[in-house]
Write a structure and sequence with these properties.
heterodimer; A: Rossmann fold; Arc Repressor Mutant, subunit A; 2 domains; 8 helices; B: mainly alpha; 9 helices
C-alpha cells in the first residue's frame, strides 16, 4: 500500500478520539484510521504488524504493568505513541516510541506522527523525489527484466544495495510492483520499448 | 472519510439512509432488496426480504465508516447471508466493473498510441487475471467449505486459517495504477476516458476495502469460532 499509513487509535474519550482523528486527516500523508475504546477492543484487530502506528492513551492500561507488557509485545513491530491526557505513572508511557500530550500544539503532533511513518515523511515539498543517477541505473536494469543478482553483478554493488536502491525508487515514485516501475521507466524515456523483454 | 461516523440504526427510514449514502444502493442490490422503499424503516425492509437486519447494518456501517468495528456474533443462517453477499459482490466486479475499466483502458491505449499506455493495459489485464483467480478460489473453495461447514456442522481438513494465508492484498496494484494515471503519465486529449477510469478505480478501491474488511474482520473470525465450537 504505497502511501496509506494505517494507524490505530486506542482512546476512550470520544472528544479526544475525534480530535486526534481530525488532526491526522489534515496531514499530507494519506492515513487509514482504526479506532478502539479499550485495549481489549484493540486486540481484536489482531495482526499486530498491520498498523504502522498505534496511538494509545495509557489510561486504557488500567495502571497495569501486565497490560503494558502485553501491549509492547503485541505491537513490537509498530511505533507506539502515547496520548497523554492526564497525570499517569511515567513508567506507563516512558517505553513508548513517543508521546503526544493533550496540550501539544498542532505542529508538534503532526511532527511526532510524521516521524513514525515508514517512508520519509512527506511533510514538506522540499523533499527531492527525483531519482539519483544510481537509482536510474538500477531502474533501467530492473525494467529490462534483470534480477537483483544480475543487477548487482552488472553494477558491481551488493545485492543488499540493489534491494535498498529498489526500495528508495519505490518510495520516490510511489508504486510498488515491478510492472508499474517499468511503465514509469518507459513513460520517462529511461528505457526503449524494445529494451524490455516480452 | 475514515473518521468515526454516527452508526446506522435499524429504525431509520431506508430512503433517508440512501439519500445520505447513495453508495448503499449497491448494497441493497446485492442483498436482493428492490428499490421503491417507500416510508419503511431499515428493519422493516430487511425483514420483508428475509435479510437479517444485523447483517445489513454490519455491511452498511462498514460501507459508510471504514473504522466501524464491533464485537458481533452471527448465527449460521446470518453467515450464509454474508457469504451470499460476498459472492454477489464478486459477480459485480467480474461482470460489470472490470470489463468497463478494461474497455476504457483499451480505448485510452488505442487513442494515445503510446507504448506506456499499452503497458498499462497489459498491467491491468494481468491484475484482473490475478483478482479473478482470487475470486475463483473464494467462490469455489472457501465459500462452499463454509456453507458445508454450516450444513453438516463438521469441520474438515481445510480451515479458514489457510484462507487467511491465501488472502493476498489485491489493492496494492490498484494503488499503482491510480498513481501512474494521476502522477506519472502525461495526459494528451484522453480527458474523459482517464477520468472515467480513475473514478471507477476509486469506487472499486473503496468497495474492495469494505469487502476485505467483511472477510477479514467478520467472516474469518466467525467461521474460525464455528470450527472450534460447532453451532448452537
Amino acid at each position: 500500500m504505497g502511501t496509506r499509513c494505517k494507524i490505530l487509535i486506542i482512546e476512550p474519550s470520544v472528544i479526544i478520539r475525534e480530535g486526534i482523528a481530525a488532526i491526522l486527516q489534515q496531514m499530507k500523508d494519506s492515513v487509514e484510521l482504526s479506532f478502539a475504546e479499550t485495549v481489549e477492543e484493540a486486540f481484536k484487530f489482531g495482526q499486530s504488524d498491520q498498523f504502522k502506528i498505534v496511538i494509545i492513551n495509557p489510561v486504557t492500561l488500567n495502571n497495569s504493568k501486565k497490560n503494558l507488557n502485553n501491549l509492547l509485545t503485541l505491537y513490537n513491530k509498530t511505533n507506539i505513541v502515547g496520548l497523554i491526557s492526564n497525570h499517569y505513572d511515567r513508567t506507563l508511557y516512558d517505553n513508548f516510541a513517543d508521546n503526544i500530550f493533550i496540550t501539544d500544539r498542532y505542529e508538534t503532533i503532526t511532527q511526532i506522527i510524521s516521524k513514525h511513518f515508514k517512508t520519509t515523511p512527506a511533510v514538506n515539498n522540499d523533499i527531492d523525489n527525483t531519482l539519483s543517477e544510481r537509482e536510474i541505473d538500477v531502474l533501467k536494469l530492473l525494467a529490462t527484466g534483470k534480477s537483483n543478482k544480475e543487477i548487482a553483478e552488472q553494477l558491481f554493488i551488493s545485492i543488499h544495495t540493489v534491494i535498498s536502491h529498489r526500495k528508495n525508487i519505490s518510495n520516490k515514485i510511489g508504486v510498488k510492483s515491478t510492472a508499474a516501475l517499468v511503465i514509469y521507466a518507459v513513460a520517462n524515456g529511461l528505457i526503449d520499448v524494445d529494451g524490455f523483454t516480452e | 472519510m475514515g473518521s468515526k461516523q454516527e452508526q446506522i440504526q435499524k429504525n431509520i427510514k431506508m430512503s433517508k439512509l440512501l439519500f445520505s449514502h447513495p453508495q448503499l444502493i449497491l448494497v441493497l442490490e446485492r442483498f436482493g432488496i428492490k428499490l421503491g422503499v417507500r416510508e419503511k424503516t431499515v428493519e422493516e425492509i430487511c425483514l420483508e426480504n428475509n435479510i437479517s437486519p444485523k447483517v445489513f447494518l454490519m455491511v452498511a456501517n462498514l460501507n459508510i465508516n471504514s473504522s466501524y468495528h464491533q464485537d458481533l456474533n452471527f448465527s449460521a443462517h446470518e453467515i450464509k447471508q454474508i457469504v451470499n453477499y460476498l459472492m454477489k459482490s464478486h459477480a459485480y466486479y467480474s461482470v460489470e466493473v472490470f470489463p468497463e475499466i478494461i474497455e476504457n483502458i483499451h480505448l485510452m491505449s488505442e487513442f494515445s498510441q503510446k507504448p506506456e499506455m499499452q503497458l498499462v493495459e497489459r498491467f491491468f489485464n494481468d491484475y484482473k487475471h490475478e483478482v479473478d483467480q482470487h475470486f475463483d478460489y473464494e467462490n469455489n473453495t472457501v465459500f462452499p467449505y463454509i456453507l458445508k461447514l454450516i450444513d453438516t456442522n463438521a469441520a474438515e481438513n481445510y480451515s479458514v486459517i489457510d484462507y487467511r494465508e491465501h488472502h493476498d492484498d489485491i489493492q496494492e496494484k490498484l494503488d499503482d495504477v491510480k498513481k501512474l494515471l494521476i502522477e506519472h503519465l502525461p495526459q494528451k486529449a484522453d480527458n474523459n476516458l482517464r477520468r472515467k477510469i480513475l473514478f471507477a478505480l476509486f469506487d472499486l478501491d473503496a468497495d474492495l476495502q469494505t469487502h476485505s474488511k467483511i472477510e477479514n474482520e467478520i467472516l474469518i473470525p466467525q467461521v474460525e469460532q464455528f470450527e472450534k465450537q460447532g453451532f448452537e
